[in-house]
Amino acid sequence: MKRAGPGLHRHWRTLAVWLGIGCFIFVAILTGLDKRIAALSILVFGLLTQAFSGLLGLVALIPWLGPLFVKVVTLPFFLLVNALSYLVTLLVVRRGGQRDVVKSRILVSSFLVGILVGYILGRLVPVHGSRP
Fold it and tell me: What is the pLDDT of residues 13-36, one digit of tens each?
């Protein structure tokens, strides 16, 4: 019997977590649990177990389209963080806190640069053994 896709056996924890999330959704629908409570529970559980990044890792295993989809999904995160920063800047300027604006912009810029540098270093430095 042939194994399922390459690298899929390494992601059994992610698959188990998503199976658990699916079962929770099914039970929540059957029992009539409030949608907000169910969504908040899934969000907190997904963040604590890193289920969302694991799901992106599983999607990235799909040849050709997977990595492209992951890049398209993660780009709006940078745009969203930057847009929220501009919104906060606008609100703070209206309240008269120019000094806080500078601190806010420096903090957000360093956050985005840190994510970018971490991504580049993650691509350059092998984590799971050495690459040729």
Answer: 888 888 999 999 999 999 999 989
3-state secondary structure of 6: coil
Question: Using an 8 Å Cβ cutoff, are 52 and 46 in contact?
Answer: yes
Ramachandran region, residue 96 (left: φ > 0; alpha: ψ -120 to 50; beta: rest)? left
Report whether 87 contacts 47 (CB < 8 A): no
Cα 16 vs. chain centroid, distance in angstroms?
Answer: 18
**How many CB atoms neighbour CB 14 within 10 A?**
20
CA–CA gap between residue 63 and residue 126 (Å, rounded): 21
> From residue 127, how far is each of 47, 91, 121, 124, 131 by CA, in Å?
23, 42, 10, 9, 9
